[in-house]
């Protein structure tokens, strides 16, 4: 895994799993299934990662599993649920993993706590981050990992892209080099950017793209791509006048109630005609 040769590792595991199943060594089977889940997740194959994790849980239920290994299973469960945007369930698994690792004074406890904070940020509960860090359990792990999440939480609470980018720069090792955190912060950055852009363009009906770029401190070409994507995604009604270098914002189109009503009337007339046809057919018979 360290060499990122995930496919080769899976090929080796497939032969090993058959041998372990033949020996009926369930504890070793839990380790292998868990490793297989991590490899599939690294290859972005979420269905197979979940299937391997389910196999690990099934094997673990039949035997006594050491707390550290149970913590590993809970940590992987949290990661997979977070990938599916089910952050509340992911938080509960990360909490279980944190309790297991914390009791063993395992260094992985800080990562479980870090991912708990990530879940709070992703469900827009950034205000809870400071209270979790200042709790009795959180104070034991104060350091760069938690400082990084606190900086992200502050940026999210203030809806500030600049503070977000400063946090990414100041805590590059803790944020961008952690693949789990980096994946979710990318979507968080996009959300923050969209919220800021909607807030900035709201007072205008026509505005220069360069002016918006200056306000939000982004390159013009990057901003143009983002605005066109937002228009296509119907985040707001507008168009880009690239000849004049302007963004034209339209008023939200009001739905005319006459069209749905007309369609409903036509549908009802169709049903009446069908009913009359059936009756006339019976009379003729």
Brief descriptors of the model:
285 residues; mainly alpha; Serine Threonine Protein Phosphatase 5, Tetratricopeptide repeat; Arc Repressor Mutant, subunit A; 3 domains; 3-stranded antiparallel sheet; 3 strands
Give the structure's gist in a few sentences.
The chain is mainly α and 285 residues long.
Describe this structure in words.
Helix content is 73%, strand content 4%. By secondary structure, the protein is mainly alpha-helical. The protein has 3 domains: 6-204, Serine Threonine Protein Phosphatase 5, Tetratricopeptide repeat; 205-251, Arc Repressor Mutant, subunit A, CATH 1.10.10; 254-284. A hairpin with a 4-residue loop joins strand 2 and strand 3. It starts with 5 loop residues before the first helix and ends with a helix. The model has no long low-confidence stretch (mean pLDDT 86).
* Secondary structure tally, helices: 15
The rounded Rg comes to 27 Å
Strand order of the largest sheet: 1-3-2
Low-confidence stretches: none
Helix fraction, binned, reads over 70%
Order of helices and strands: HHHHHHHHHHHHEHHEEH
Largest sheet: 3 strands, antiparallel
Number of strands: 3
CATH topology of the largest domain: Serine Threonine Protein Phosphatase 5, Tetratricopeptide repeat
Domain module count: 3
Instruction: Tell me the fraction of residues in β-strands, as a range.
Output: under 5%
CATH level 1 class label of the largest domain: Mainly Alpha
CATH architecture label of the largest domain? Alpha Horseshoe
**What distance separates the N and C termini?**
78 Å
């Amino acid at each position: 895994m360290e060499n990122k040769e995930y496919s080769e590792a899976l090929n080796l595991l497939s032969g090993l799993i058959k041998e372990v199943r033949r020996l009926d060594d369930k504890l070793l089977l839990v380790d292998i299934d868990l490793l297989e889940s991590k490899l599939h997740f690294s290859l972005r194959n979420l269905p197979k990662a979940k299937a391997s994790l389910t196999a690990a849980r099934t094997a673990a239920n039949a035997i006594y599993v050491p707390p550290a290994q149970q913590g590993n299973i809970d940590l992987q469960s949290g990661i997979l649920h977070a990938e599916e945007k089910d952050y509340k369930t992911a938080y509960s698994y990360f909490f279980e993993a944190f309790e297991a690792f914390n009791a063993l004074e395992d260094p992985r406890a800080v990562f479980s706590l870090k991912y708990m904070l990530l879940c709070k940020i992703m469900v827009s509960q950034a205000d809870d981050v400071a209270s979790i860090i200042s709790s009795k359990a959180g104070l034991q792990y104060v350091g760069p990992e938690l400082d990084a999440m606190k900086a992200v939480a502050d940026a999210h609470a203030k809806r500030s892209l600049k503070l977000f980018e400063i946090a990414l720069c100041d805590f590059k090792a803790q944020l961008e080099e952690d693949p789990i955190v980096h994946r979710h912060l990318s979507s968080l950055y996009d959300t923050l950017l969209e919220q800021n852009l909607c807030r900035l363009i709201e007072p205008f009906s026509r505005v220069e793209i360069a002016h918006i770029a200056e306000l939000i401190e982004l390159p013009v070409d990057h901003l143009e791509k983002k605005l066109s994507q937002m228009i296509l995604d119907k985040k707001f009604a507008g168009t880009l006048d690239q000849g004049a270098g302007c963004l034209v914002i339209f008023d939200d189109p009001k739905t005319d109630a006459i069209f749905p009503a007309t369609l409903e009337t036509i549908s009802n007339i169709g049903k009446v005609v069908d009913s009359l046809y059936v009756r006339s057919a019976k009379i003729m018979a």
